[in-house]
Amino acid sequence: MKGLLLCCLVALANHLSDITLNPKKTYEYKYEGVVDFRLDRANFAESGVKITCKAKITGVSDQVFLLQVSDLDFAEYNGFPEKNDYEASPKLAKRIAAQLVKPFMFEYTNGHVSDILASAEISTTVVNIVRGILEFFQVTVKTTQHIYELEEIGIHGKCQSNYAIEGDTETNYWNITQVVDVTNCREKAEMYSGMANAVEDKLSRERGKSVFSTVRYVYTVKPSAEGGLITAAHGLEQQYFSPFNVKGGTFKMQAMKELTLLSVSDTASAITTGPMESKGNIVYKFADADVNIPILMQNLDNPVPKAVELIKTLAEANENSIDNSTTDDIIKVYQLMRVISSEELESMWKQFADSPVHRRWFLDLSVEIVDAKILKFLENRFQTRDLTPTEAWHTFLVALEHLQTTPELVEMAKVFLRMPYSKSHTYLWNTVVLSYGSLVYRHCEYYTPCPVTAVQPLLDMATDALRTNNKEEMVLALKGLGNAGHPSSIKTIMRFLPGVAATPVDLPLHVQSAAVQAMRLIAVRDPHSVQDITMSLFLQKDLPAEIRSLAFMVLFDTKPSMAVVSTVTTHLMEETDLHVASFAYSYLQGFARSRTPDNHFLSIASSVAVKILSPKFGRLSYYYSKAKHIDWFDDDFLTGIASESFMLKSANNTLPSEIMAKGKFHMIGRIIQMLELGVRVDGIKELFGSSIPGFKGDYSFNDLQAIFNVLQNWEKLQDDKPVLSAYSRVLGQEWFFTDISKETIRNIVTALSPSAGKASLLWAAIENMQKGSSWYYTRPLLTLEARYFQATTLGLPVEISKYYNSLTVISAKATINPPLTEHLGQLFNSEISLETDGFAGVSKDYWVFYGINTDLFQCGFESKNKVPTAVPWKFTAKINVAEKKFELDFPLCKEEIELTSLRYDVYAVLRNIEEPTSPKKTSLMPASEEVIRRDPIEMLKPNTWYPFYNVCAESNIYGVGLCAEYNIKRQYYNEEYPLYYFLGYANMSLKIVPAQTVKPVDKIHFELDAGPSRHPMSAHQLLQTLRKLSKEATKRINLTSDIDLRKRESHHRSHSMLMEASTPEAVFNFKAFAMNENQKPEGYDAAMYYTPEANAQNAQLIVSQVGVNTNWKMCLDTSVEADAEAKAHVRWGAECQSYDMSVKAAVAQINDSKPVLEAKVHWTMIPEYMAEICKRVERYIPGVAFLYGFDQEHEKNDKQEVAASVVTSSADTIDVKVQFPEVSPETSFAAAESPNVLTDPSIYMDVLSFLVL
């Protein structure tokens, strides 16, 4: 029997060959395609679409066939399973059928579709749907193998396919299973947009994926002498997506399609077709991706009137405040602008140019056109010079940052480097060069290898600047090359570097610094070349310490191997420049503790290096150069953050020559360099030299005065060298830098001088304010448009997109008196009155979309997060600089003001072009608690979390209150964290609300008096009483020996004698009153006293409630003593007698070597609500202590005291113990910073001073 079956299979195999179509036959199939978006748990909303039709295939020649589609139906689904069903959309079906009614041709040979032809007017979207049908005929059959794999072209691109063929002996049909690996395609039908500046992190992808897809086809094939005929076919594609790790819960896309053979007949007659053009092969084609914004759908016919009307509406609605109901319309304008022609764009400019408000909105929205039209528009503006330098600067900056990066657009952008207007203003010219470099960088991300012609203008600019010795142009060209990150620019950059240039040139330090940093992005693209150069710079001991440190920093951007780190470590052991050694060692320390995936191997190498170098460099203080690296990463979220800061110094200068700080964000396999700031102080550094006369290092008033005395000599600075330089980088790209020269400082000093007259710019500004000036600022900005597109088996594109748009509005009106007549100094000798009202706010909208997005319909999931923030104001002020007196009057709050809020929800969405104003949006979670569907295999019960909270703190004195409210709904599974925790609804807000007052209030009055003043003896007596009470409190929480106590009692006695000899003088007095013309004011009065002693800094604060029948006061006494002790004593209630609390902290030495920090909080009486809070906190202490690795001792301590001690038990170990009333957690851990920090008591004292005062 087995032998008979084998013979049958062999016979069938002999008849089975490639899938074929008979050119003399007509085949009619039924086709159905369904795509559905859901979660991998039950009881959540879903969205999907279904397409059904008949497909007739007729032979034209041996290798050319005709496809006709008929009986097309289109249905939509949005809602909950078993509660909602698919609904027909006849209008959209009619629109699609209108294009499909025209026939398609395709070439078909050996089971493969090679070319598809259609009428020119057929859209790419419809052709892609046809590709989804024809994909069923893209199958490779090997008659000699039953299991095989091969790489072949399909709708997803050039991907690996695995086949299994099984024969059915009853029907003599063959079942063919094809599994396509769409994750690792060599040439994949996918597209990224807006992510060029986000560096790919392959090591992060190894820890987890955020997107995972599977594709499977099953064919039933009837073998014949002519070849195999597909009688039925089924395709299934499943994709799992999460903003985090797919292991923590996912959204799911399921695309299914079926093809069923209805009939086969002889072709009756030839079919006549009109002219056709090639639409490409079976691989999915992307088109109009920038126009098809996934979070909205609108009719794009006749876009100019719609855009004009929306711009006018937005300008009017958001002139003096933000209308949050209109901010979504900004995205609509972006989409309309992208379909407007160049001629129409010029026409709109002429319409808006004369209106300052409309002009500003038009320019800010036009930057999102992203194609050649915006370059042509800006070129016209630069030629006619009808933009101000500020308008040109901002518009060009954002436009080029968001521009597409095709070779044609890069070539077009070069014209701005040659235009005279670009060079007419320093900041505009800087922006043109830096933005072009950024464009080249993004171009090279998508086009590899990147042609040198793209970066050639910047190379020529650098060469010319070096030839003419133009140092400003050298720095600018190097910064442009740094933004471009093109490997071909290394040879040019080397010409500016000391010790590696073929022809050495003597260049200033800031030029060399720019040259080293110009390699920061090349370090990723050509790490070996950068390693060679930076290693050479680092090892040259005759170079400045700053350059060697920068070279070391860039060297580690290349992620050096263990061998390179070992080489560096060996040379550091022989390093004599402690600034270089300190910088390198501290940087290695940071990497040794790194947890981010990109530093995985570097962390291992660095930890070994630190162990070797620690005995020699582990105790270097903060006097030397430092580099700090701190990061965090979570595998469940696939998310992390990193922060780096650098301080570069040299032995010849007191001040650092350069300070830099930057942050990075790690998210789903990419690294985003968020913000970087840097400052160079070349001129100021030389002004201070190697020491500051009179500077002791404790940063007291005398130290600040010594620094000020040096700064007064700024006229000695060199004229040809920048005094101060600053730069900023976003997403790794430098977008702004400035050099502050001696001349700039002179102009500022002159303009602000009290003797300045009418020629001063400040004089003109004050004159405008006297007339009643107003100022408006609005700025819509699409900060993020990051998109990922991938083909599906249906020929529909699945998209993952993130959009972040903001609208900033600031408006202000102000009037100032008195008028100036002679010079600005009049303002300092008279009482200034100011009346102003205005608004400052920003509305932020953030969307995440996952679903199908075409020009005809959209379906999938969409999350929307809106965060508006608003600060309106209206007040009058009186300022008397001579008397140091300041007053503010605010009107009574009469209406609710929402300061900030957060509104967040996730929806199943469905839109179609036939009903663009009526999208279907269903909140992901059901409105009620009912369970709509249960998965039979679901064993876990979901947790529903629905907290609601509303709390207000109101003052019946001032008639105002502050309310916080939140309303959240979540349904999550513990083991599916983190995705499900973020799904659901959230609404949070913070509001200022009017409150009922005890007495009528006209205004709220604030007054600050910092002038000399004497207070009556009642205050004197209160201070004496406060000092005595503080002395008693000190005894209660004594931390030191009896000898120390007697010494401190001596201080208190001498202080009391000092207070008795003179009436205390307040440092300042602050009043906050509710005012009414017919009644006495009510509110609070605070006075601050400063009573220093020889060995202590003492301060007292007395707050009194002002009003009828009230004696509430709060008395605070603080002291920081020279022998490393700080304490604070606070009493409050009736005459400061109801409640009492004391805090004391001290730094001491154990055995004259080990510093110890001890602190205690003691209370004798506190309010009941504070006691209840303390009890609640104490209940959490054991769990938190266990979580952080503390050992616990259950012991009875003082019930009214909490104590803590931190002891440096060794050079790199700290012991910590905290004593609560009933438990005492303690632990030991390795120090995270340099050991010298732990052994320097002054560090502890600085911390204490900050915390106590």
From TrEMBL:
<dbReference type="GO" id="GO:0032355">
    <property type="term" value="P:response to estradiol"/>
</dbReference>
<dbReference type="Pfam" id="PF09175">
    <property type="entry name" value="Vit_b-sht_shell"/>
</dbReference>
<feature type="disulfide bond">
    <location>
        <begin position="159"/>
        <end position="185"/>
    </location>
</feature>
<keyword id="KW-0732">Signal</keyword>
<dbReference type="InterPro" id="IPR015817">
    <property type="entry name" value="Vitellinogen_open_b-sht_sub1"/>
</dbReference>
<dbReference type="Pfam" id="PF09172">
    <property type="entry name" value="Vit_open_b-sht"/>
</dbReference>
<dbReference type="InterPro" id="IPR050733">
    <property type="entry name" value="Vitellogenin/Apolipophorin"/>
</dbReference>
<protein>
    <submittedName>
        <fullName>Vitellogenin 3, phosvitinless</fullName>
    </submittedName>
</protein>
<dbReference type="InterPro" id="IPR037088">
    <property type="entry name" value="Vitellinogen_b-sht_shell_sf"/>
</dbReference>
<keyword id="KW-0325">Glycoprotein</keyword>
<keyword id="KW-1015">Disulfide bond</keyword>
<dbReference type="InterPro" id="IPR015258">
    <property type="entry name" value="Vitellinogen_b-sht_shell"/>
</dbReference>
<keyword id="KW-0758">Storage protein</keyword>
<dbReference type="InterPro" id="IPR015819">
    <property type="entry name" value="Lipid_transp_b-sht_shell"/>
</dbReference>
<dbReference type="GO" id="GO:0045735">
    <property type="term" value="F:nutrient reservoir activity"/>
</dbReference>
<keyword id="KW-0597">Phosphoprotein</keyword>
<feature type="signal peptide">
    <location>
        <begin position="1"/>
        <end position="15"/>
    </location>
</feature>
<feature type="domain" description="Vitellogenin">
    <location>
        <begin position="21"/>
        <end position="659"/>
    </location>
</feature>
<dbReference type="Pfam" id="PF01347">
    <property type="entry name" value="Vitellogenin_N"/>
</dbReference>
<dbReference type="InterPro" id="IPR011030">
    <property type="entry name" value="Lipovitellin_superhlx_dom"/>
</dbReference>
<dbReference type="InterPro" id="IPR015255">
    <property type="entry name" value="Vitellinogen_open_b-sht"/>
</dbReference>
<dbReference type="GO" id="GO:0071391">
    <property type="term" value="P:cellular response to estrogen stimulus"/>
</dbReference>
<dbReference type="InterPro" id="IPR015816">
    <property type="entry name" value="Vitellinogen_b-sht_N"/>
</dbReference>
<dbReference type="GO" id="GO:0005319">
    <property type="term" value="F:lipid transporter activity"/>
</dbReference>
<dbReference type="InterPro" id="IPR001747">
    <property type="entry name" value="Vitellogenin_N"/>
</dbReference>
